[in-house]
């Protein structure tokens, strides 16, 4: 799922609903390297709280992010837990003009369509550490020959 129609929410007198959405997350570039989530999807827990025709949307999920270590280029697998909130006023995200022709609103909903793919990707990006590493003590690559310093802890070059 990449988009979710907020009009499909049926409150039936309740002021809050919960729904789990399988959201597709395409591979993305971070720090010049490509990363992905396993299986290309996350299970996003969406909570929608209603006051009149306004909504407060909360998204929460946990996922692994896999790709190359930013120091040694070996495989890295980082767990992130995310939570985000978006406000929808009269069918458009807070900050958006419901009569505007473009979809440049600050939020993730426009004309009752929630862009869950973009929201999930942005939440992952916000939760990532500054560097994705295979392990906290990764030593990286030798700047002279490119040897993996994690495999050869005594690696060095004799100066001429």
- Low confidence ranges: 95-104
Sequence of secondary-structure elements: EEEEEEEEEEH
Structural class: mainly beta
How many structural units, i.e. domains? 1
Structure summary, number of beta strands: 10
Shape: rod-shaped
Radius of gyration: 21 Å
The DSSP helix count reads 1
Spatial sequence of strands, sheet with the most strands: 2-5-6-7-8
Helix content: under 10%
Mean pLDDT: 85
The biggest sheet, with number of strands, parallel, antiparallel or mixed sense and barrel status, is: 5 strands, antiparallel
Instruction: Kindly report how far apart the N and C termini lie.
Output: 60 Å
The fraction of residues assigned to DSSP E strands is 35-45%
List the defining traits of the structure above.
160 residues, mainly beta, 5-stranded antiparallel sheet, 3-stranded antiparallel sheet, 1 helix, 10 strands, 8% helix
Would you mind describing this structure in some detail?
With 160 residues, the chain is mostly beta strands. It has one domain. It contains one helix and ten strands; from the N terminus they run ββββββββββα. The strands form three sheets. The protein has a five-stranded antiparallel sheet with strand order 2-5-6-7-8. It has a three-stranded antiparallel sheet with strand order 1-10-9, with no helix packed on it.
Layout of strands and helices, then pairs:
Elements: E1 4-5, E2 16-24, E3 28-30, E4 33-35, E5 41-51, E6 54-68, E7 75-89, E8 92-93, E9 109-110, E10 113-114, H1 116-127
Antiparallel strand pairs: 1-10, 2-5, 3-4, 5-6, 6-7, 7-8, 9-10
